[in-house]
Prior knowledge:
The chain is α+β, with helices and mostly antiparallel strands. It has helices at 6-19, 34-47, 74-79, 81-90, 93-103, and strands at 50-54, 58-63, 117-118, 124-125.
Amino acid sequence: NTKNLGECAVSRLREEVAKSVPYPHGLIRELCNDSFLRAVRQEAIDHLPATFKETDLFKMYQTVDMANFQDDDANAQETIPHLLALRQALYSREFREFVQEVTGCCELSDKTDCAVNVHARGGHLLCHDDVIGNRAVSYIIY
């Protein structure tokens, strides 16, 4: 819930993003509670097969795009409810407006482009500008 961050934290994050180099970025600590994220992690391990992918920018395992799961999919609701809740929260109007406020980016759509990535020993994700089509913002949740 971004309302729990408070205006001071939002202002500090906005300033952090504006001053960051080499690419605009910011860090939000404790956006989700730990037990919720542990449940998300366990669902991903138990229910999402991952495929190895490698380019000059990354070497990792990646699951299917979370857009492939429908909100009314009974199997997904039963097996990955926390993952679906996280996806829903990230694409909620409230969170999109929060991201727009701290980054100054354009209006964000509710289109889901979301996957779970695993960087095993020797895996990597190099710093890059992540310019992909109409993507305005990227995020990583640890």
